[in-house]
Specification:
This protein is an alpha/beta fold and 233 residues long. The chain folds into two domains: 143 residues, Rossmann fold (3-Layer(aba) Sandwich); 78 residues, no CATH class. 36% of the residues lie in helices and 25% in strands. The strands form two sheets. Strands 6-7-8-3-9-10 form a six-stranded mixed β-sheet, sandwiched between helices. Strands 2-1-4-5 form a four-stranded antiparallel β-sheet, covered by helices on one side. The two termini are 20 Å apart.
């Protein structure tokens, strides 16, 4: 399998602290890949380096063979990489469906002129976005909350909403940062099936960080273990 994502000799410092040290690995296309390790081992920092929140002190990040090192996060999303966050980044005052629709803004073709005049092309495109959002909502079993404010959803539902919003950007690679955090055992079991469904239905590669080892060992086809920013297994 060819590498969709390739990390080459990546290191990153916070002052005198080396958070990631000479990190090299490939994520093959089409797999569910797990990154595990203790708290403070550099897992989320690695995600932040991949997605442009940080720029590596050393090394490169390649996606589909293109160097995306240090690109702005929105450019990386436009290029096909989406993520969720360890701490939820939901728009609480927006409805569930609007949280998903806003993630599609950069893929629409309607400009300011057609939007203000509400031309037929704008209305047609808005309907397509709405239909796609509803499909994602149904997949996440949130159809009874589609028009509720997101801040009123229970925690497990918010986790699913954030995954739906990532998928709305039409990615090729989805990074999930501790997707099972705060979920009860039933929600975690459901999440395992959902991650497989996301990979299979959307033909995406999934790269996840997780402390829940039952989930990791049941869904991940490859696992990398890091500590102090270095690969140990």
């Amino acid at each position: 399998m060819s590498a969709l994502l390739s990390i080459q000799g990546m290191s990153h410092y916070f002052g005198g602290l080396k958070a990631v040290s000479n990190f090299t690995f490939d994520v093959p296309e089409g797999v569910i890949y797990g990154l595990i390790g203790p708290n403070g081992s550099g897992k989320t920092t690695t995600f932040n380096l991949i997605t442009g929140i940080y720029t590596p002190t050393e090394g490169k990040v390649l996606f589909e063979g293109r160097d995306i090192t240090g690109q702005k996060p929105f450019r990386i999303v436009q290029g096909g990489v989406a993520r969720t966050f360890q701490n939820l980044r939901i728009f609480g005052n927006l409805s569930v469906i609007d949280n998903i629709r806003v993630a599609r803004h950069f893929t629409v073709k309607s400009g300011l002129f057609t939007s203000l005049l509400r031309l037929p092309s704008f209305k047609q495109e808005e309907e397509v976005v709405r239909e796609e959002a509803m499909q994602l909502i149904k997949m996440m079993h949130l159809e009874d909350r589609a028009f509720d404010q997101a801040k009123n959803l229970p925690y497990g539902a918010l986790r699913r909403l954030e995954i739906a919003r990532a998928l709305a950007t039409k990615p090729k690679l989805v990074l999930l940062d501790e997707p099972a955090a705060g979920m009860n055992p039933k929600e975690t079991d459901d999440l395992m099936g959902l991650i497989r469904q996301v990979r299979d239905d959307f033909k995406v590669t999934v790269f996840l960080i997780e402390h829940h080892m039952k989930l990791v060992m049941n869904v991940c086809e490859r696992v990398k273990v890091i500590d102090f920013g270095e690969t140990i297994a």
